[in-house]
Amino acid sequence: MSAWQPLLEWWFGAPGVGATPSDLEAAAQRYGLWFGKQDSQDMQARERFAGQVEQALAGELSEWTAEPEGWLALILLLDQLPRMIYRDTPRAFAGDSRAQALVCQGLAEGREAALTPLRQVFIYLVLEHSENLAVQEQAVARFQILHGAAPLAERALFGGFLDYAEQHRRVIARFGRFPHRNAILQRPSTDAELSFLQEPGSRF
User: Fold this and answer.
1) Are the C-beta atoms of 184 and 92 separated by less than 8 Å?
2) How far is CA 101 from CA 29, 33, 77, 96, 135, in A?
């Protein structure tokens, strides 16, 4: 078993007999893990993967990028797992710059083509996490492609991902940053941002 396989199985679900879960099955099983905020999930991430996250944040594990699934797993360690393990602290975003560099390099090489559409989502979410409008535009474009190519049964699933990307882009277009990060990163908020943060859904 490769070093990254336990992480991918925890994140996407373990393969059944001769097959990995379909995108719809994986999403149904794992959506709460991906986008929920539960102390028990954060603790499990910490107990199982904190060591690898620390290695990734230290610039290690580059050898994982030799294979598309290893590339994806390293990106998860840099982008998704810190948001769980270090939730509501500045360290939650510590891997973002390296994750974005890995994504940009991998996309330039076409590595995402070897991944299922659902796994591609977690590549493009790195772009969605950027506070750069041009990168946000790239994220929306990528999610538009996924949505357009999705079979009818999965259209709603990928439509939801696209809608979320468009919401992120609108926030960056309006403020140039994510206001909900200001308190965590000790950035002063403007009156407009404080007003926005009172709106439902403003904190993602």
Assistant:
1) yes
2) 30, 25, 14, 9, 12
Q: Is 18 left (phi over 0), alpha (psi -120 to 50) or beta?
A: left
d(CA 118, CA 54): 26
Identify the DSSP state of 189.
P
Name the β-bridge partners of 16: 19
Tell which CATH classification among 2.60.40.10, 3.40.1190.20, 3.40.50.970, 1.25.40.10 matches the domain 5-196. 1.25.40.10
Calculate the CA 58 to chain-centre distance.
Answer: 19
R_g over Cα of the chain: 17
Residue range 67-120, pLDDT digits in tens: 999 999 999 999 999 999 999 999 999 999 999 999 999 999 999 999 999 999
* Domain residue ranges in the chain: 5-196
Answer whether residue 52 shows pLDDT above 90.
yes
d(CA 65, CA 69): 8
- Distant-in-sequence, close-in-space partners of 48: CB < 8 Å, separation ≥ 6: 6, 10
Dihedral pair phi/psi, residue 79, rounded to 5°: -110, -50
18: pLDDT strictly greater than 60: no
Q: Which residue type, as a one-letter code, is found at position 135? A: V
